[in-house]
């Protein structure tokens, strides 16, 4: 893995200095992700999962005669930085696609730039409405948050629970997530309560008290692991055990690490199979991470990134010559049904949201995720 990281750092330095990057011997995939800051673990897991698959592919000769390199620029989980990084990446004419942005918020200023340059915006790690629109450059690898929430709310309302509180970010995407819940509950003559949080700020007793005051029967988390974990620990500390479900956006493994024992009983939507699944593609991704030098078990974020890297690589493999951003975009659009090895996705022109897979995982007392 060291040569890959060295190359990434070297190319990034060249980009920022205004130098021309000569990458005729590489296929370059661009990414903006939080490598530092409060959501760094999530960004690093996306990066490492994709890099591991590309490294495995490169060890077998690459694709169409060249290795694939992931060029990642750090956005520190900041929307403006992600937009600036995107401009930097797209100014490098050798970038075949943009890959694995860590949220819808980080994608907002990036997608229009990708569309203007006709460069694929591939596999953002979000199911929020801004990345569920139909754009010729946008390809998603996961179910929508609406599909996740429907599964969670179906479960809780079937048990007779009616008072739902939604924890969301007080920004454009967070309010849209709240609206998705509102629209679902409206069908059964219910409406949610809401606890808005400022993004990238500390969560503590004040927010927990405000949530308790709403007297919810169910809490629906649509925020990241740090905020969700802090809130859960505060609730447990005051003896309040409230049924809670979280979107996949929380980052299941990151959440489990952050929340500790207080997380027992929380359910989290999953958009990929369990990392312990015997599914061939899951075993392939676990092997790729091990070969890349990972010393810890593969988590769901790394698995999703590996899946996405495999599909993008297939798009590059199918691209007509000369291989460039436009031919890769066309190949992805016409990919059709593709079996990764037990997990299927499907892309077609105008239908570029590839998966509707959702299952609920429960955090166990010993800090594991169980889908049984």
Task: Please give a handful of descriptors for the protein shown.
single chain; alpha/beta; Rossmann fold; five-stranded parallel beta sheet; globular; disordered N terminus
In the CATH classification, which architecture of the largest domain applies?
A: 3-Layer(aba) Sandwich
What is the helix fraction of residues, given as a range?
40-55%
How many strands appear in the DSSP assignment? 14
Outline the biggest β-sheet. 7 strands, mixed
The name CATH uses for the topology of the largest domain is Rossmann fold
Tell me what portion of residues adopts beta-strand conformation.
15-25%
Short description:
The protein has 372 residues and is α/β, with parallel strands linked by helices. The protein contains 13 helices and 14 strands.
Question: Strands, helices and their partners?
Answer:
Elements: H1 2-17, E1 26-33, H2 40-59, E2 67-74, H3 79-91, E3 95-99, H4 104-107, H5 111-117, E4 120-122, E5 138-139, H6 145-158, E6 164-169, H7 172-186, E7 193-197, H8 205-213, E8 218-221, H9 225-237, E9 244-246, H10 252-259, E10 267-270, H11 280-291, H12 300-318, H13 325-333, E11 336-339, E12 344-347, E13 359-363, E14 369-370
Parallel strand pairs: 1-2, 1-3, 3-4, 4-5, 6-7, 6-8, 8-9, 9-10
Antiparallel strand pairs: 10-13, 11-12, 13-14
Helix pairs in contact: 2-11, 2-12, 6-7, 8-9, 9-10, 11-12, 12-13
How would you portray this structure in words?
- With 372 residues, this protein is α/β, with parallel strands linked by helices.
- It folds into two domains: 2-142 and 277-347, Response regulator (Rossmann fold, 3-Layer(aba) Sandwich); 145-270, 3-Layer(aba) Sandwich (Rossmann fold).
- The protein is 43% helix and 17% strand.
- The protein is built from 13 helices and 14 strands.
- Strand 1, helix 2 and strand 2 (67-74) form a beta-alpha-beta unit.
- Helix 2 crosses helix 11, helix 9 (225-237) packs parallel to helix 10 and helix 11 crosses helix 12.
- The protein starts with a helix and ends with a strand.
């Amino acid at each position: 893995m060291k040569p890959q990281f060295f190359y990434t750092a070297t190319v990034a330095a060249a980009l920022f200095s205004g130098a021309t990057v000569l990458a005729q011997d590489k296929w370059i995939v661009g990414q903006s992700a939080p490598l530092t800051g409060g959501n760094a673990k999530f960004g690093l897991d996306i990066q490492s999962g994709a890099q591991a698959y590309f490294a495995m592919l490169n060890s077998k000769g690459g694709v169409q005669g060249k290795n694939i390199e992931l060029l990642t620029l750090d956005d520190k989980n900041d929307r403006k930085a992600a937009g600036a990084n995107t401009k930097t990446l797209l100014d490098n004419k050798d970038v075949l696609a943009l890959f694995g942005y860590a949220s819808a918020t980080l994608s907002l200023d990036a997608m229009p730039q990708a569309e203007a340059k006709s460069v694929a915006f591939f596999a953002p790690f979000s199911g929020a409405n801004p990345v569920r629109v139909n754009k010729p450059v946008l390809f998603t690898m996961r179910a929508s948050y609406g599909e996740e929430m429907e599964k969670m709310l179906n479960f809780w309302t079937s048990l007779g629970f009616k008072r739902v509180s939604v924890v969301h970010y007080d920004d454009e995407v967070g309010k849209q997530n709240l609206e998705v819940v509102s629209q679902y509950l409206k069908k059964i003559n219910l409406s949610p309560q809401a606890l808005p949080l400022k993004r990238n700020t500390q969560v503590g007793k004040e927010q927990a008290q405000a949530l308790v005051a709403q007297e919810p029967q169910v809490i629906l988390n649509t925020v990241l692991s740090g905020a969700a974990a802090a809130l859960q620990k505060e609730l447990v500390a005051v003896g309040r055990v409230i049924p809670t479900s979280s979107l996949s956006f929380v980052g299941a493994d990151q959440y489990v690490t952050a929340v500790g024992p207080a997380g027992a009983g929380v359910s989290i939507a999953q958009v990929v199979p369990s990392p312990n699944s015997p599914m061939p593609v899951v075993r392939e991704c676990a092997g790729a991470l091990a070969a890349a030098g990972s010393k810890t078990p593969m988590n769901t974020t790394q698995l999703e990134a590996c899946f996405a890297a495999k599909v993008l690589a297939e798009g590059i493999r199918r691209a007509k010559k000369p291989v460039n951003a436009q031919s890769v975009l066309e190949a992805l659009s016409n990919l059709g049904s593709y079996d990764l090895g037990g997990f299927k996705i499907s892309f077609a022109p105008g239908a570029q949201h590839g998966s509707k897979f959702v299952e609920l995982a429960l955090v166990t007392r010993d800090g594991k995720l169980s889908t049984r």
